[in-house]
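Student: Please help interpret what follows.
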Amino acid sequence: MTTRTPHPPHHEPDAPRDLVGIGIGPSNLSLAALAHPLTELDTVFYDQRPAFDWHPGLLIDGARVQVPFLADLVTLADPVSPWTFLNYLKARERLFPFYFAERFHIQRAEYEAYCRWVSENLPGLHFGHQVDAVRWNPERDVFEVDFTQLDTDGEAEALGRTYTRNIVLGIGTEPYVPDPLKPLVEAPTVPVVHAADYLDHRDTLLAAGHVTVVGSGQSGAEVFLDLLRGRPAGQEKIHWLGRTEAFAPMEYSKLGLEHFTPDYTRYFHALAEGTRDRLVSTQWQLHKGIDADTIAAIHDELYRRTQHGGWPDAVLTPGVRVRTAGRIATTRIELHLEHIEQNTRSRLTTDAVVLATGYRERPLDRILAGLDPYLRRDSRERPRVDERFRLVLDPSVTGAVHVQNAERHTHGVGTPDLGLAAWRSATILNSLTDKEPYPLPARTAFTTFGLEPRQPQIPAARQARALTPLVDGW
């Protein structure tokens, strides 16, 4: 696919755009792809990275995306879009091999390559642009967005400002490191790395005398499996620790998956704040468990190593938290452990640690500091987000600030799920245009969530179309 001409072709520097996107991860890339054919919208997207990348440290060979390939950037909102995964395969002359491979879940590296292909061909994306501040200008009824253009080394090259009627924040998540282990991560002589950087340190970790993986989710399982396969039989010397009471499979029943539908998202959003917070903490197995195939592969690898007698030198212990940690000399690490159910404590000496401790939403406070007087917050000082993914602002602000993958506290466990990205992007674009360019289904689940299920409001544009008599076809 050749690079397309941006639209509109000319933009006056001081003229307000319709939409400025901040961050170009899968969520905003989905929005940009669905916005592309809407020629009436003047959009631009900024990201401080030099190019698109998606969890490069976890593109482990064989690791798969945990949603079907139909959960690409656009298909579930517009299956005829030129930016579908299937069209990517067609452009690469790989459609027939994919057809015969019969793969419903693709490898993570292939999903990343697909997104990179979209980012390289879609106009209106500006990498190497760091957004510094967002303000509301009440005199012009527009947002001011200040940014710094970066050179290839990430150094400031030029300053700029753009104006826009609406903003969408898609700044994503960042690796989370528990407080007891932060001092170790900052010590250069001790190999303690977050799973997000695993591949960059893989050779060092494979060569370490003893390795400990902390974290019982999908990333921890994939890292443990990769290290296990790379270490000699009988000399594995690897520990896998997790806080959860078991190395539990992710909920993947068909009715269980309906928690990742628009129906459940609408139901969750309408619940009381306290109820939402309680639910999020109890639904970890919906999104933090381990893929059943990965669990099976780990067991198969461990079993294979028992075929000639003996047990592999691998210890898998759930229900454990790391209380504190310290260095022994300059090259070894001592973890102080507590078993949650037994209420017992012990120490583990290791040569390297991989922290598969997950990700947290990047805080919006820095980038939205200029909008703080206009923001409406909940009882825990988190931004309130309405059903259409808009921050609740003072009525004097006529523009909208939408958020993507920053609204788990208001929209539930489906917030980071790739399967809802296209639907969320379409919802945002329908709200911006008020013309419903992407008609969305009124019902998406067999499960009825709540005694009074909430249905989306049908836009006036669709109601008018529904009342228009057919000219032909009766």
Summary: Confidence is low (pLDDT under 50) at residues 1-9, 466-474.
